[in-house]
């Protein structure tokens, strides 16, 4: 199998605006005193293309109780997910706790069985659960799983359903 080298980029992207200390190559001609400094100086102010009201505001930091509840939710779901991936629990038990895409990913991982052989040799050790909240209704979680001499990583994303307010696993992956 031959390897091909990547071609150089076709377009060079430069930052907008002038570089510091760089002047325009041709300075503008003398502007009459009666002419406005900018052609739209006397025109009506333009409305912005993207009003600030439509821009997403950063998520407020969760209070301590909410953050602790999310951590506990992430830890409990990680435990059950690892049990499913190891074959100690049927995948159907997580069906109502996953979205359609999340269950499709989970069932593919169960068929592949990344933790199943490790579970037969000994006990699985669940390491620390690391979670982050990129949005108010989402939690991304990563957990290390010790299986004998091997280490695995399980990552998943929990999202809160809009209508039911139930947390569901939307994505899962293992390495």
Summarize the structure.
With 175 residues, the protein is of the alpha+beta class. The chain contains 3 helices and 4 strands, in the order αααββββ. Strands 1-2-3-4 form a 4-stranded antiparallel beta sheet.
Topology at a glance:
Layout: H1 64-86, H2 100-112, H3 116-121, E1 124-135, E2 138-147, E3 150-160, E4 167-174
**Helical content class:** 10-25%
Count, helices: 3
Q: What would CATH call the class of the domain at 64-174? A: Alpha Beta
Oligomer, anyone? single chain
Named CATH topology of the domain at 64-174 = Nuclear Transport Factor 2, Chain: A
Structural class: alpha+beta
Percent of residues in β-strands = 15-25%
SSE pattern, N- to C-terminal: HHHEEEE
Overall 3D geometry? elongated
What's the architecture of the domain at 64-174 in CATH terms?
Answer: Roll
What is the mean predicted local confidence, pLDDT? 75
Distance, first to last CA? 27 Å
Q: What's the total count of β strands?
A: 4
Described by strand count, sense and barrel closure, the largest sheet is: 4 strands, antiparallel
Radius of gyration, Cα only, in angstroms? 27 Å
Strand order of the largest sheet: 1-2-3-4
Uncertain regions spanning at least 5 consecutive residues: 1-5, 7-18
What does this structure look like?
There is one protein chain. The chain is α+β, with helices and mostly antiparallel strands and 175 residues long. It has a domain at 64-174: Nuclear Transport Factor 2, Chain: A (Roll). It has 3 helices and 4 strands; from the N terminus they run αααββββ. It has helices at 64-86, 100-112, 116-121, and strands spanning 124-135, 138-147, 150-160, 167-174. A hairpin with a 2-residue loop joins β2 and β3. It starts with 63 loop residues before the first helix and ends with a strand.
